[in-house]
Queue: 4 jobs
Job 1
Amino acid sequence: MGQTVFEPWNDPDAKPLIQFKNVTKRFGDFVAIDNQSFDIYEQEFFALLGPSGCGKTTMMRMLAGFETPTEGTILLGGQDIAPIPPNKRAVNMMFQSYALFPHLSIWENIAFGLKRDNMPKDKIDARVAEMLKLTRLEQFAKRKPHQCSGGQRQRVALARSLAKAPKLLLLDEPLGALDAKLRQDTQFELMDIQEKTGTTFVIVTHDQEEAMTVASRVAVMDHGKIIQADTPARIYEMPNSAYVADFIGDVTIISGTATPAGDGYDIAFAEGQPILHAKSDIQLAKAQSCHLAIRPEKVAITAEKPADAANALQGKILDIAYLGNLSTYHVELANGQVVKSQTANTRRLSRRSFTWEDEVWLSWTDTAGVLLKE
Amino acid sequence: MRRLTWFNTTALTLGFAFLYLPMIILIIYSFNESKLVTVWAGFSTKWYGELLGNEAFLSAAWVTLKVAVFSSTLATILGTLGALVLVRAGRFPGRTLFSGMIYAPLVMPEVITGLSLLLLFIGIGLDRGVFTIVLAHTTFSMCFVSVVVSSRLVSFDRSLEEAALDLGCSPMEAFRLVTLPIIAPAVISGWLLAFTLSLDDLVIASFTAGPSATTLPMKIWSSVRLGVSPEINALSTLMIGIVAIGVISASLITKRAALRQEAEERAAVQA
């Protein structure tokens, strides 16, 4: 029995929870968000990913109500939210600094939003208890924030922002202050909680691994524009531009000129180097310049020239990045182009076959690389 | 512990003597039996008794207390609002002028502040009394409050207020429930500062007080001009005592709070 795939963005009948319609935000002369339109669907875990200053935080602050768009409209459940102040929105936010109230206990922090709604006391008690249980904070209820560890504070902030059962939860770099190990555990916890509560999450992060792990869709941003918004797998395997390919994961980008050949193209990239082959659906004219983006794990490294590879290049090992489970070889071709190749370290160190300065062959299939327009 | 060298010991002794010898002499002579201030004639507490019977001093003390409480409270409210605008409002036309003007009374000679207020009160035909002293003290002490409070507000994390708004507070509720409790220590110390400033002000009060209101410093000053009486010594000793108790208890409270927080944080790390 097949499980229904959660892909509301592919369903033309699905009604989006949030709609950005031609939204522009300017601070003086600086354009933070540049005429963006996109939709976020109910129960999505949507990640805004990009380098600092790309506008992702502005996007989130507009949803929370701390900024208003200069032009365009933002609809939440079909309603324009521009005139609604932050305290009247069914949207809650988890702040990067957590912003826990230092003078209140953990219990009071979580109950803070419920009390503002004049909820009866027994209902508040029940809801706070439920939140404490969800975030495994039961025995810390009476503590003050400064008596908690970083991981506990992070969970308090999450519990507080979820307590009012918002339609939409915004998370601003929620795991930025945690160390690597705790961050990984917390990522899975976040996904678990998102699934349990069925709340729509929008997360802002500059950590691509985090975005890929937690999100149903990732929007890669640069200079106030969403460059590509898609599932993590499609973003990684089918980037629509050299920027996205480069921003997400490790990649080698070879620039050259394309000539149509069969159901793909021949790419000439340097004199004295063999012509490369790539299958692609994109439309390129003859001799149009293009980029070929190849992920290192799709490039094989061998001592002898492989007999029937679509693409094979010879070079010398320049650098080896040892990551424990993986090693990335930086191989320099005769023309100076560096191509990365990654292999799993299935054998112990002493049995490894390549070292610095070794002459090696790199090869990949004609479907391994992604052909991108200039 | 490092041992004190003879140089350090001497410097310490001289320093403390410089600061406290005048006060110690004053306190000792307040217990003098003799009516002559400079002649020691045995221990007595009779001047304290006479002080309690002195209507003029008691009413001056009452006026001073009223003025100090009202003016410091008013100054705290206005100074805190001023600090909020200065720190929060960002750029607005006249911001530099406003921030310069709010700090001007810090460096303005008291004589000038007093004189200008006197001219104002005469100009608008306001009868001088307790009310005018309160106004005058509020004017010059609110800038001290605003300095103390704004230095706290600068390090205040704005996202705390945003979180309060996000959780359903109106801007006023956010201030009352989140901002104010967090900056309360600065507001309280601003109030204490304004209170102390008002308590010992002589110059501005002299300009703005009418015949109906005399503050304690004014009373002391005018009596001293007729010769220092042991009664004044007794009164001053009481004031020193009150101030000392206030300062010591305030620092003890702060220290205990800091120690408790430290202990709690240690417990959190171990947990």
Note: The first helix of chain A runs from residue 56 to 64.
Job 2
Amino acid sequence: MNKQLPQEYYELLEEIQAVDFVLVELNLYLDTHPDDYDAIEQFNTFTKKSKELKVVYEKKYGPLMNFGRSYSNYPWDWKEAPWPWQV
Amino acid sequence: MFTQFKYWEPYISPFDPCPPMRIKSYSTPPQLYIPFQPKGLPQFKPMEALYRGTLWPALFSPYPDPKKRGDQDE
Amino acid sequence: MWYYEKKLQYPVRVSQCNPMLAKFLIEQYGGADGELAAALRYLNQRYTIPDKVAGLLNDIGTEEFAHLEMIATMVYKLTKDATPEQMKEAGLGAHYADHDKALFFHNAAGAPFTATYFQAKGDPIADIYEDIAAEEKARATYQWLINMSDDPDINDGLKFLREREVVHSMRFREAAEILKEERDKKTYY
């Protein structure tokens, strides 16, 4: 079965990748700048944004994480293609 | 302020077999010049940050050399 | 404990069908200055590095696995539809004979991955300076790969990965400063 993903899948994914990238950058920065209050505030704001975007994504396209970090649909869709290197 | 690329001219021998590269360059990216990132540096917007590979313009290192000169390598 | 998120850190695209690039990209998959060496180096050092910088080693080590996945994606996309003929023409005949299109941890010259590519001396200064050097070596390797590739999409990905090495180097240099800091006076933040 050849599943095709719509344009909006790629757009939503890109938005999530952008927000999560900011989070990675801030996380590394905070590892060496633990007292930067503003950066922590920004980190938490972006964390909230990331979670919100992922609720939308997971409702449409299934779980992003395994081992109970995301909910599952029926039937079990964690194992479904496409995997990130195929997208 | 610092420059992101440095240039040098290696010795060219009259016995060199191949056409010489007169100017060689190497990258000198921001981490060489910033001992500790200061707080509050300006940031890219998230989408641009993703495509640049960093949240902060001050840490951005262009490659290849935007000022590529003449017969320079890379 | 590790969890996996089912998305790439960065949208990897490959616009040209050129399996020859895969032969060189594999250097950052199984090579001495590649992403696997980096991930294992930092994640292994983090057990014994002073607590105040262990978080950084943990997090950069984890990010390197995300980069490993990006390189794997590039190689996968470049080779998954290649015929055995194309694999041979691309210089990947020896790889194909052993692995078909499966990826494997060897460098561009075919040398297998080895733990000798990295160290953990147990001395925090030696370990952190090894990490800074590793990031500079990885940055340089991405430069040579970018030089050889004229696929604009692959180059976007490689430039992202090169910039990540710049930022990681920055963080490890900060970690060195943190390790050097005298107890009574805080020189930085």
Note: The CA atoms of residues 59 and 73 of chain A lie 9 Å apart.
Job 3
Amino acid sequence: MRYTATINDKTYEIEIGANNTVTVNGEPHNVDFRTIDGSRLYSLLMDNLSWETLVDRNGDEYRVLIGGELHVVNVQDERTRKMAKAEKTQLAQTGEAVIKAPMPGLVRGVNVNVGDAVAARQGIVILEAMKMENELRTPRAGSVKEIRVKPGDKVEQGQVLLIVR
Amino acid sequence: MFKKVLVANRSEIAVRVLRACRELGLATVAVYSEVDRNALHVRYAEEAYCIGPAPARESYLRIDRIIDVAIRAKAGAIHPGYGFLAENDHFARACAEAGIIFVGPPAQAMRAMGDKIAARRTVAKQGVPVIPGTYEPLRDDAMIAAGNQVGFPLFVKAAAGGGGKGMRRVETADELPGAIARARSEAESSFGDSTVYLEKLISPARHIEFQILADARGNVVHLGERECSIQRRHQKMVEESPSIALDDKLRERMGKAAVAAAKAAGYANAGTIEFLLDKDRNFYFLEMNTRLQVEHPVTELVTGIDIVKEQLRIASGRPLSYQQKNVQPRGWAMECRITAEDAYNGFLPSTGKIISLHEPTGPGVRLESALYEGFEVSLYYDPLISKLCVWGPDRAAAIMRMKRALSEYKILGIATSIPFHQKLFQSTNFIGGVFDTTFLDERFTMEQGGSDEREQVAAIVAALLTHDRRQHALNIPPPTSSTRGGWKRFGAVEGFGR
């Protein structure tokens, strides 16, 4: 599984593989990661270097304390990265806002009807993809012009789901 | 000697005093507020009595209730610790009237030093240098005139003051009348006494204080100095003994001045003379603290003298068992005040339950603490939760040892000042001894991040935790009727939300 960890403007491409291997920006490492107290204290052995960390999480943001240093890390996986990208590109459009599926999946729900007024960033379609429920939101306020999918539909990446004007 | 001691305090200092009593074979009595029922000092003492609700005014500051308990429990003496009633001469008198020994100075000495203007006069008469300023209570017009003689910038301070209350910094003459008015009203509301005085601003300066021990027969010794310049908004964060700023000659001069100041006040028991030391190595009497100090362990570590036991012996009427020449400090000691404050969030108070605790130990480490797993840190009392002290043969060794001990100390459940201390002990200015009382506020910041290596470790840890969460999420059955997102649902199931 691939993740992107961002600290300030620095990014780490991290791939977590089988057999305790983690590849960081193309460099493989051997890791052994354990929770110590079942809550915030973790031990990481990486290539036999021993690290102890205290971690607080808030959404996708991790506050990691190591030796008195605080590192605030944002983590995106493939799914959250695509979701974020989709919202960004849809936001850039003017006129009609076309809501497309950011990845292949199964429509779990449509929360609006044609003609409904919608607020900016209102959740309108639930798309199950990569075994998670993802809420797709309107890029801006408007009214629902067209709905092209219904619950239970399988959709392809880039398929138009809904149009707001 | 009395046989039973009541400790009129809570938290680490109550435990500290109870330990001394136990080692002296004295029976012990604790008092506690309703929220402190489970506190360590309550369980540590042989007897414990509830004295009221959580707010200190209704419990730890209730003189009447504490005296009642002492009588009921037949305690021969009361030790006030520090804070709460420790410098309250009414309390000292109430003890005397009830026939109970107050472990501290005589009420009149406490009062003489508690009035900062009177204290300035008293010690100045003995030839001890005092910060230039005013020495008598003055009316506003006389004080404004005196301001020009003192020179600016200066401080307006409350005669009954302490802890920065009723204190105003004044840059220019035209600000003085307003500052006097505000300081007076603040002093009136905080201490019930609007008397103020002027004191010239000494800056840059180090805060150097001398520990005093005096018996009831007029014998006074000092136990050397403590360096307390590492302060955040007038609150000490780190103390050490000795100070890198003193040599033997200056130490001897300041020590003699401290002893003279204590003698002038007719002082008995443990006390502290605070000085400011300017960049030209001139020292000035600042004030006397008529109690045990938070930072007393650093003096104990270098002198080998148990100050709390000495307090109890002196209070029972025994003479000092040594003279000045017998006090031979050795090595270097340091203390970090660990507070329940979020160092990476503007030192905001942090409250909550201690869910897990890993305390430092090993050679040369002393931890003064009343924490335990399950303890609830509340907003009712001081944020100080423990004091981590170390001893080393020299300053460099003490610093390395403190860094080692800090890295071992893990308090989970609340945010603490530990990351601040870790950063401070990496600062080249601190390590080099290049600091004064303005250092923390003006030349030290808690910046995020640090080494590239640790940053990468943080990134990997965060990715591993995200991965872990995703793997867990896959095992949760798909949603049925709920339209909530998978993330949120998972949060609710696992209680991940903060």
Note: The radius of gyration of chain A is 20 Å.
Job 4
Amino acid sequence: MAPGAAGAPGTPVAAGAPGGDFTVKAQVMDPDEVRRALVRIAHEIVEANRGTGDLVVLGIRTRGAPLAERIAAAIASFEGDDLPSGAIDVALYRDDVALRGPRRLESTTVPVDLDGRVVVLVDDVLYTGRTIRAALDAVLDLGRPRAIRLAVLVDRGHRELPIRPDHVGKNLPTAAGEAVRVHVREIDGDDVVLIGEKK
Amino acid sequence: MIKHLLSMDQLSAGDITHILDTAEQLQGVTDRPIKKLPTLRGRTVCNLFYEASTRTRISFELAAKRLSADVINFSADSKSSVAKGESFKDTAWTLEAMGVDAIVVRHGSSGAPQQLSQWATASVINAGDGAHEHPTQALLDLFSMRQRFKDLSDLKVAIVGDIVHSRVARSNIKALVTMGAAVTVCGPPTLIPPGVRSWGVEVSYDLDAILVDLDVCYVLRVQAERQSEQLLPSLREYAALWGLNSKRLAHLPEHALVMHPGPMNRGVEIAADVSESPRSIILDQVANGLAVRMSLLYLMLGRTDDAEVAAGVTGA
């Protein structure tokens, strides 16, 4: 386990960590499992696309962004050519702005023109599908891709919209009252997937 | 986030930084082919202007439209009910009855936005009230300075001109002092308010003496009517003593910037060639106003008042 991983069952996550009001029940992926899942997703993306032609990998802020970079780096390492990757912030496209109030904005960095490209959206957890709905609108305002695909590290179910992922790291059946937290080393210092209870 | 923005007094250094950071992200939208965001869809913003304005009104209108809010423009001129004698209060109640979410107000009387905020349930944004404040101007000015200088707390800024009557000066002084900048006000003694040092600024009556040590020379508009009020001997004398001309520009440090809130009196407070020099960021100020006002509308209108009620009903 990575140093400092908040993986011990029953340990409350320290305030300031993602979702401070969260008690861990179990660790469902360790750093090696996260790494293997991302490498497999990278291979699946290239296989489904029949090569890297026209591919762009875009991570959804916050934790989708480093995952997208890692997938792009993995593809570059075994296919030999660099893949454009970027990040999008979907806060301005969310349907719960009026309900939850404004979120802190992060930068949207898209390195290439998206017209005619195949965009692979990357996020850490797929849940209701509402973030992805927002991301689809955000991408379509930036250009007209030939296709948009979706890759997620964890699919926890409970969709509220007709959205399905193309590439999944782990299917994780959950109860609605449970919460899933993904830690990525670029932001949280370790790579783990935790399941727990919201307080 | 605050509900009404009436004065820079309401904002801490942290609030200001948050507003400017948000504006920085929103500015990226301006470079895109599709410049509209769906964020404030269904919300209505009313521009209520009792005084003439070009850039502030257009900037607020465009900011609201870029965020998909609906915009109503109301100017208290011969075509409105104000010409028929409708009071400020009745106008406020009319807007209230029509259900607007934000009122952007400019008024000749200091304190008018404050009064309006007590009558209206909508968010009130002060777009300039009398000689009191113009907070969104100060925020866009800070944003423009921050684009060129990373840290506002080290800046040496002179605000030059009619400090007494300037709402721009008042809001900028508060904002800059809050961010830790060193501010000097400079102008004819008749146009420097007594006791201005209590705002945390230095005072100088000699522009040439302070130029060499500035990061920003902020030039205020001089209003011709100050001459008839006998506060100024003549505009020519003003231009000679406090006008920023190319000779004075040469004495500014290499990195120093020239700013002006507009509209300019070329040849009075600023020479035409200075306003168009590469040191002048006057057009950046205008462009940045859009991003800063989008940021404010997003942060202030993002959440609806009845959101908590709605959340309770749906159990979301």
Note: Strands of chain B lie at 44-49, 70-75, 102-107, 123-129, 156-160, 182-186, 202-204, 216-219, 257-259.
